[in-house]
């Protein structure tokens, strides 16, 4: 007996129709691996997630040897259409294949099959039928990412307090305590001076950003027309100068001038129906600085068009059914960012599901994880050989980071308040890498202890600025600092591997572990938190921008306590016990910390007396080989010198910053 290809295909469709009917009639709803009847255990081994939400599609990953016929074979009964998750980019085919992006598809379900009582159960029968196809390697039920904001936006409505130190002319800068915390009670009665990212001296002396570096904000849409963001938005010139409604650059996204909407698969970025979350995060990273209006961004430039650039990669969209946040949508955003020049992905969101290990998340995440790997392996600048991904740790007050941030090679950020202590909402523990300001309500009405940034008018009563709190706000602080680091490294001509760059970020910190004693009462949440739970669990410490720049520069950085003369051993910077070296002078190159007296060397130690928080660079001169400099008729040693940086803090640990 023989039959042609079409006969075999008809037979196959009839078989699958029968299978769908039998499975739908007598099997239990699929709720997780291992819950199916034994007859279907082998089929369910291809499932990597549980059907927990309603979705119009199932995600399918084909095997490595898939071809065009493999895609055609997905068009079985119950399937409405099959769509590739990712657009291929010329020149990127090898990396796309290496990361498996070429084999992911959204299989859209016939609406009649989808209409069932329980979430996801309408997909189960079809998923089981699809798993019978030998071409199918993985079937992923979509899960949903959650935005990391804690609470709603509070519009800006306070008068700015006077500032003790200003770098830029942005009128709201004094309210941005996370950049320079003076301990002012107008911010928070318990505000702690120095509980900030220590960035103002970096602006004044080292760098304010560089437009070559692009930070992708994977979030709600960024209001690209905001007056404090517009000048620092990344623009796709081919689309900007092209025809409306036309995919001028052929990348699969129509009119993607300022980024993409990964939910609608075009350039229609929206912000009016969400929470203003993406716009707020963007302002922290690179709001335009020194332009005489609003706030300052960490990598927002000096007001001369020299800030880093923001790319909006929208993954949440309340205009659309379900609101976005599905794995294929977040994955598309990572790939778009990588393909269009982003060096940093700032991700103030996470998955609420509590995975126990990296492998558990990787198995469940599928398409999202493949796209993250693609972003990390894409080189978009000459300074670092890969893309840096930064996530919020989560706002559930859980003793571990949420995924994807909990991945061991991803930076996950915890949050502190203006009091320099962990916030009541921050996650902490395994997977959490570093702390940054996330803000905290002083009372339910007083928001100055939160983070002030840009907002759309829909959420700011027309003021275009407002407060939010959350690890969502902590994440863009580290993203902005990373952008400054790329800018300064480029200025110096330095290059790094991606891991080297991450290591420098995570070791450029000041310690607050010794402050974590007793309880903290949070007025807005009416909660009492035991600070002892957070010891050694907030990451390496509080991120410090100046110390990060010193690592990039190669300058040793010391930490001194404010308010007293103290001795600092500098032996490790001169090769031998410093007591055996003849020191000749200490020169203050620059200082913002204000010194009560000139620093000096005595018995091999540097004595310094800072009176306020800040930083300084000192040149210490000495003689190697004797007590006098040799030459001519003098037999002696060689004059040597070492530049060191000193950061002054109210709280100094004995380990110099490491937790």
pLDDT below 50 for ≥5 consecutive residues: which ranges? 1-43, 115-121, 654-659
Q: Give me the CATH superfamily of the largest domain.
A: Peptidase S8/S53 domain
- Indicate the proportion of strand residues: 15-25%
CATH architecture verdict of the largest domain: 3-Layer(aba) Sandwich
Number of strands: 27
State the strand order across the main sheet. Answer: 8-9-7-10-12-13-14
Give the C-alpha Rg. Answer: 28 Å
Question: Would you tell me which CATH topology of the largest domain applies?
Answer: Rossmann fold
Tally the helices: 15
Principal-axis shape: globular
In short:
This protein has 659 residues and is of the alpha/beta class. The chain has 15 helices and 27 strands.
What are the key terms here?
3 domains; single chain; 27 strands; 22% strand; seven-stranded parallel beta sheet; disordered C terminus; 15 helices; Rossmann fold; 659 residues; globular; disordered N terminus; alpha/beta; four-stranded antiparallel beta sheet; Immunoglobulin-like
Description:
- The protein is α/β, with parallel strands linked by helices.
- The chain has 15 helices and 27 strands.
- The N and C termini lie far apart (75 Å).
- The longest helix has 22 residues, at 5-26.
- Helix 10 (327-339) packs parallel to helix 12.
């Amino acid at each position: 007996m023989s039959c042609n290809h079409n006969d075999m295909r008809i037979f196959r469709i009839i078989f699958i129709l029968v299978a769908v009917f039998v499975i739908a009639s007598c099997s239990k709803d699929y709720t997780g691996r291992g819950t199916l009847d034994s007859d279907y255990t082998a089929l369910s081994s291809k499932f990597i997630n549980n059907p927990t939400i309603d979705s119009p599609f199932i995600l399918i990953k084909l095997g490595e040897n898939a071809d065009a016929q493999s895609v055609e074979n997905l068009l079985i009964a119950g399937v409405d259409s099959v769509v590739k998750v990712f657009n291929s980019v010329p020149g990127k085919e090898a990396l796309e294949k290496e990361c498996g992006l070429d084999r992911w598809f959204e299989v859209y379900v016939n609406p009649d099959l989808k209409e069932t009582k329980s979430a996801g159960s309408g997909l189960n029968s079809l998923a089981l039928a699809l798993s019978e196809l030998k071409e199918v390697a993985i079937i992923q039920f979509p899960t949903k990412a959650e935005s990391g904001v804690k609470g709603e936006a509070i519009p800006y409505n306070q008068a700015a307090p006077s500032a003790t130190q200003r770098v830029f002319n942005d009128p709201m800068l004094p309210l941005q305590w996370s950049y320079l915390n003076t301990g002012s009670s107008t911010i928070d009665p318990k505000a702690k001076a120095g509980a900030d990212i220590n960035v103002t001296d970096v602006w004044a002396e080292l760098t304010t950003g560089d437009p070559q570096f692009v930070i992708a904000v994977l979030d709600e849409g960024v209001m690209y027309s905001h007056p404090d963001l517009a000048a620092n938005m990344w623009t796709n010139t081919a689309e900007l100068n092209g025809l409306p409604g036309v995919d001028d650059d052929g990348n699969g996204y129509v009119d993607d001038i300022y980024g993409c909407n990964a939910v609608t698969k075009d350039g229609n970025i929206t912000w009016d129906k969400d929470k203003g979350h993406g716009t707020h995060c963007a302002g922290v990273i690179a709001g335009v600085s020194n332009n005489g209006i609003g706030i300052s961004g960490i990598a927002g430039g000096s007001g001369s068009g020299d800030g880093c650039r923001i790319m909006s990669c929208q993954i949440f969209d309340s205009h659309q059914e379900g609101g976005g946040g599905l794995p294929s949508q977040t994955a598309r955003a990572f790939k778009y960012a990588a393909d269009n020049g982003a060096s940093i992905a700032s991700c103030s969101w996470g998955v609420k599901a509590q995975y126990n290990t990296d492998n558990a998340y990787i198995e469940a995440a599928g398409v999202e994880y493949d796209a993250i790997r693609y972003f990390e392996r894409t080189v978009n600048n000459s300074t670092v050989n890969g893309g840096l991904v930064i996530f919020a740790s989560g706002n559930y007050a859980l003793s571990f980071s949420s995924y994807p941030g909990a991945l061991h090679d991803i930076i996950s950020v915890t949050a502190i308040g203006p009091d320099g202590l962990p916030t009541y909402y921050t996650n902490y523990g395994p997977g959490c890498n570093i702390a940054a300001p996330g803000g905290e309500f002083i009372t339910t009405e007083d928001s100055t202890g939160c983070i002030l940034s840009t907002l759309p008018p829909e959420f700011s009563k027309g003021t275009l600025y407002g407060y939010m709190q959350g690890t969502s706000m902590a994440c863009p602080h580290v993203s902005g600092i990373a952008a400054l680091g790329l800018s300064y490294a480029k200025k110096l001509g330095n290059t790094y591997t991606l891991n080297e760059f991450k290591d420098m970020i995570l070791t450029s910190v000041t310690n607050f572990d010794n402050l974590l004693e007793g309880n903290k009462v949070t007025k807005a949440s009416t909660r009492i938190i035991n600070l002892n739970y957070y010891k050694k669990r907030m990451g390496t410490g509080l991120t410090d921008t100046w110390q990060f720049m010193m690592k990039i520069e190669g300058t040793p950085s010391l930490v001194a306590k404010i308010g007293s003369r103290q001795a600092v051993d500098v032996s490790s910077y001169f090769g031998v016990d410093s007591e055996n070296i003849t020191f000749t002078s200490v020169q203050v190159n620059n200082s913002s910390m204000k010194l009560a007296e000139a620093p000096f060397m005595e018995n091999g130690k540097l004595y310094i007396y800072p009176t306020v928080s800040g930083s300084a660079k000192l040149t210490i001169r000495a003689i190697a080989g004797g007590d006098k400099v040799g030459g001519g008729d003098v037999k002696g040693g060689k004059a040597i010198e070492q530049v060191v940086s000193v950061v002054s803090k109210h709280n100094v640990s004995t380990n110099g910053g490491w937790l």
